[in-house]
Amino acid sequence: MKIGILQPGLVPDVILQEVGDYDTQFRQLLAGQGFDFETWKVVNGDFPAGVDAADGWLITGSRHGAYEDHPWIAPLEDLIRAIYASGKPLIGVCFGHQIIAQALGGKVEKSDRGWVVGPTLYRYDDKVRLVNAWHQDQVVALPEGAEAVASSEVCRYAAIHYPGHAYTVQPHPEFRRDFTQALIAHRAPGVVPPDLVSDAASKLDMPLDSAEIGAQFARFFREKRLA
Questions:
Q1: Catalytic pick from 64, 161, 165, 172?
Q2: Where do the Glutamine amidotransferase domain residues begin and end (predicted)?
Q3: What is the pTM of this model?
Q4: Domains of the chain: residue spans and CATH
Q5: Catalytic residue (one of 144, 153, 174, 186)
């Protein structure tokens, strides 16, 4: 099964050299599942010819806001709606989670609750999962037909299921310790409040439940179901 990775953001060069790009992390998260991958850097205007260029689709994170005015936002939303209509499975993470909701009629805003960074607890129906996060924007209104399946203390719609079509999450199961540590070193200064940075750094060695969400992604790609 071929997974098309749509990349709406670029990792800073210093982080890229240390730990790799956004798509590399998803290839690692989904390694051993029998998937093939191809990446399109939509942030640079690089788009696939159409929805049939892959069997399933994944939209990564980005430093950009889904509501910002960039020339690639509208074409990406058009592609999301085309993927949704085709019935091909679609996964979105962080920005991907937000842009899918926005493209399908939901709403995304910069949260008045501020930044969420580092290992964070998310409540699913069956359990609590600890996953890395790095965001300030949130989905604040669901598209019609979508259902929230996870939340956190500051994020009501932390995971969204679009039955038979898509599954999206606000946190970053693909972020490993080294990547979050690199973000703390190179992206947090002057942007993220110091107390949040210190708290995130203190939790970097906590065991994460990222592999469980990665397994959810793989299951959804193959069967379009969460469990």
A1: 172
A2: 68-176
A3: 0.95
A4: 2-223 (3.40.50.880)
A5: 174
